[in-house]
Amino acid sequence: IVLPKFATVSNLATLLQVRFVDLQQRMQDMGYSDTDPDHIVDDENAQLIADEFGIEGQVSQSHGDDVYAQPPPENLAACPERPPVIALMGHVDHGKTTLLDYFRSSQIVKGEKGGITQHIGAFMTNLRQTNRQVCFLDTPGHEAFLKLRQRGANLTDIVLLVVAADDSVMPQTKEAIKHAKAAGVPMLVAITKIDRPEANIEKVTADLAAADVDVEDYGGETQTIPVSAVTKQGVDDLETALTALIEVIDARAPKYGNVEGVIVESQKLKGLGLTTSMIVRRGTLKPKMPLVAGTAHCHVRQIFNENNKALKEAPPGTPVRITGWQDLPEPGDTVLQASSEDMAKRVVANRKRLIQEALEAKQVEIINENRRIEHMMAKEAKEKAERLSLGLSVDEKETVSQQKTCSYIVKADVSGSAEAIADCVKDLRNDQVAADVLFTGVGAVTENDVFRAQAAGATILAFTTQVSRPIQRIAEQQKVPIRNYDVIYKLLGDISEDLSNLLPPVI
Ligand code: GDP
User: What is the pTM of this model?
Assistant: First the structure.
């Protein structure tokens, strides 16, 4: 079947001729968190989903003004090696950052550190034993991994699962296992903190096996390596195991041809304007190239590595920050090279138009649905009146309990975190109350945000982003609450409180 550029989940179920609940379940198994009937999926994702049902979905090629990802190179084995992308995942406080710092420090030891290390969401380093280049994702945990995956950007080659020997398998460990499995990414386990007196490596291995990890000790393929970031015991073994896995996956990509990549983070930076970090997937990125990602285009001005060093070119596997965007694309968006800047602009205009059309179609759908409900209610009222006038009894239908919602606008300094926060906020719901995110955005709170919030009766959540004095004043005038946060748990706690205030009092 030919897939439209954009379709709602409910439309997709119709197109694929599967039950909506089945589609929803399958999508959740694949790692999609938003499977509401009205959630819009693009054709690339629709294709992946169709594939899961064994249906061959073809992306509509009718919209000529677009650029497409290239098919895999004919002879991948003949392409040069590229640094594999490794994501550390695991429960909070189990030692991810410490281990990342250990890997990062090999670069610093080698004296290759240029300026001050910048957080760009990924960094390149060499393994100590083999000097092999690897790219570590340095993003805040699972949300980023999931976000990148959901957008069809299966960026990660290896998941390095971190489990503390004194704490064993915890909820986020299980979640990480689930994500790695769903992504079909090979996993390596580092059992950290083995220097702690309460460390119990056997328990961790048993718990991992119970959590469906095919650990080597139980005859499986997943290696578990006990390490201590303090005494450095086991870190060499971890590197050896990592190197072996890297050899197995044998990551390669063509250095020539059109550039493709994936956005990791988008940020507005003082002096640099709109910037993104991205990982080059194929081709060699150079300044002046016209790029397209999502509904943004870029005429590459500068390319920096994580040490703020300006690069003349970035081959596959390199994490870089680039400047020259006209708009900010979103994490996980595919970056494609356009043939010219004009073409890039046309592609973006075309994509925006298609999204607008999909939204308008959705609005029509909502209006029709509302009309249908109104019509039904009017009919019921009429019938009731007729029965009353005839002196017949009227069965009072149980009043359908309406879900109450609190609405929010989320602004954050890094778009990765805005999205992650919005996802967590949307998860706060039950049958009676729900948190609704109207809009997420990157950067400071603007006048527009305030007016948007005012129109919808929403609260603005400003996460590690500024609210200027004039904006504060406008918000006060418009009676729009703006709340500032720099800790996500606090933010979620407050929202839970908002929601519980909506619940009827317990009698
Ligand atoms: P993350 O939340 O997973 O990134 O965990 P961190 O890397 O921030 O580590 C949490 C705490 O555990 C920090 O206080 C670390 O110093 C400590 N830690 C990490 N690795 C080890 C280890 O191997 N041994 C010991 N004793 N402490 C560790």
Answer: 0.66
Q: Residue 125 C-alpha to ligand 1 middle, in angstroms?
A: 21
Structure tokens at 135: 């790219």
Tens digit of pLDDT per residue, the chain (507 long)? 777 777 778 888 888 888 888 999 999 888 888 888 878 788 888 988 999 998 888 776 555 577 877 777 878 889 999 999 999 998 889 999 899 989 988 665 454 444 566 778 889 999 998 999 999 988 766 666 777 766 666 788 999 999 999 999 998 898 889 888 878 889 999 999 999 999 999 999 999 999 999 999 888 899 999 999 999 999 999 999 999 999 999 999 999 999 999 999 888 888 899 999 999 999 999 999 999 998 899 999 999 998 889 999 999 999 999 999 999 998 888 899 999 999 999 999 988 887 777 667 656 665 666 667 667 777 877 887 787 777 776 665 444 457 788 999 999 876 667 888 888 888 888 878 889 898 888 888 988 888 888 888 899 999 888 788 888 888 998 899 999 988 777 888 888 889 888 887 765
CA–centroid distance, 195 to ligand 1, in Å, is 11
The token duo for 321 is 């920050």
User: Which residues line ligand 1 at a C-beta cut-off of 6 Å?
Assistant: 90, 92-98, 192-193, 195-196, 228-230
Helices then strands, counting H and E runs in the chain, come out as: 13, 21
The ipTM value here is: 0.98
Angstrom distances, CA of residue 317 to CA of 26, 69, 136 = 31, 17, 10
Side by side, the strands of the sheet bearing 224-226 are: 122-126, 133-137, 85-90, 158-164, 187-192, 224-226
